[in-house]
Amino acid sequence: MKKYFPYIIGCFALLALTVLLITTVRKRPKKMNERITLKQKDKNPYGFYAARKLLPLLFTDATIIDDNSPVYHLAKPSDSTQEAVILTSMYLNADKDELEKIVEFVKEGNHVFIITKSLSYKALEFFGFNSSDISNDDGDFQDRSDSLAQTLSMPRFIDTATYIYPGKRYSNYYNTVDSAKILVLGRNRSNHPTFIQLKAGLGNIFIHTAPLAFSNYFLLHKNNISYMQQAFSLIPDNVSKVVWNEYYLTKRERPPPEPNWLSVLFQYESFKWAFITAISALLIYVISEMRRRQRLIPLFDKPKNDSLDFVQTIGRLYYDRKDHKDLGNKMSLYFLEHIRNRYKISTDHLDETFMKTLHTKSGYPERDIQEIVRLIIQSNKEDVLDEDQLLQLNNELEKFYQNT
After folding, report:
1. For position 197, which CATH number holds?
2. Is 400 left (phi over 0), alpha (psi -120 to 50) or beta?
């Protein structure tokens, strides 16, 4: 027993230590998760889980869906139904093309409800604001006086009570608003606009720059759920579909390119065109000088047909010797060789078959071919060939060469 006593004491000590740790952990006060996510799946204080779950109660006749596709999918062919899209983001980094798609979508009679703290410079410029028109309104969570407070404005809302909660502020407000184009729907504690409406065609664009007014913490604090009910009541009841879109919560904005000396100088129009002209001239000079430099190629006379001169010389020789018979045989042999080489016709038998085949392949009249064959046979049979017969044979052969 004494042998196992140290082990028993050790087990009891380990058990006591475990119980002590569990008790300490249970008694430790839970720390609130202060991470701002604005995501509809998060149940932490600054998530949008409650707001997303309330949508079916606010739009009882509409289909509620989640779609995080890029915003340019919104613009679809118009039909008889209306849709509403709720865009949630911490920073609306929409480019010009996306903003134009949103406006096209709204002009068809749809509605877009944007919940975001900040808008990119392109978005501010697109909606007619300057960077100085919007200011940061963040507060300290530890200071109750800096907590978020929102008030809906008349005449769109009858209930102008102030909705407040002791959480983070995380909001912005508008310094100046063009009342001719923009309708103010809500303000903060300092009476600065935080909730506005812009008209576009048959639809509306709502922009709310205090996103935590739709957080779990804010909506579940006292009767603050009424704030969301009234804010979303601006969307008509006849919408057929409500889309919850978190595309801008995950979209990463490309960092602006670092300025270089050339981009700075290109801000001056005169320098820009002078630089482009100089580069163009230099490029043309380089291309023109890239050609291979060489001496001019001398012109060569067209080669003469010496064989024709040779034939003419031999013909004159035979003619001067009055050997018409031999000259006629040479002309006949040359003609038959020409027929064999060009038309691939056998000249062993100058019969009817030969003449029909030559007529078919050459297209020369059959009667003229018969005359040529007759003259060739005649020149071969006779011992002497007079000048008129030789001239007739030559004329018929020349006519065949020229026409074929």
Report:
1. 3.40.50
2. alpha
- Residue by residue, DSSP assigns 72-112 as GGS-----S--EEEEEE-SEE---HHHHHHHHHHHHTT-EE
**DSSP letter, residue 113:** E
Determine the pLDDT at residue 111: 93
Tell which residue, 189, 194, 88, has the closest CA to residue 139.
189
Alpha carbon distance 176, 192 (integer Å): 9
- If asked whether residues 98 and 229 sit together in one domain, one would say yes
Query: Beta 149-152 vs 162-164: how paired, if at all?
Result: antiparallel
Mean pLDDT computed over every residue of the chain: 80
What is the C-alpha separation between 211 and 169, in angstroms, rounded?
9
pLDDT at 293 over 80: no
Residue 172, strand partner residues: 136
CB 333 within 8 A of CB 393: no
pLDDT of residue 333: 82
Is there a contact between 359 and 366 (Cβ–Cβ < 8 Å)? Answer: yes
Distance, first Cα to last Cα, the chain: 132
The reply to whether 256 falls in a domain is no
**134 has a pLDDT exceeding 60:** yes
Kindly report the number of other CB atoms within 10 A of residue 11's CB atom.
10
Side chain identity at residue 57, one-letter code: L
Residue 328 placed within a domain:
yes
Structural domain includes residue 297? no
Nearest Cα to 99, choosing from 78, 75, 76, 118?
75
Residue identified by tokens 């380089």 is: 286
* Percent of the chain as helix, strand, coil, to the nearest 5: 45, 15, 40
Q: Give CA–CA dist 228/107, Å, rounded.
A: 25
Residue 327, C-beta contacts closer than 8 angstroms, at least 6 positions apart: 315, 318, 319, 390
Q: Is residue 289 part of a domain?
A: no
- pTM for this structure? 0.56
Residue count (the chain): 404
What span, in angstroms and rounded, lies between the C-alpha atoms of 391 and 357? 26
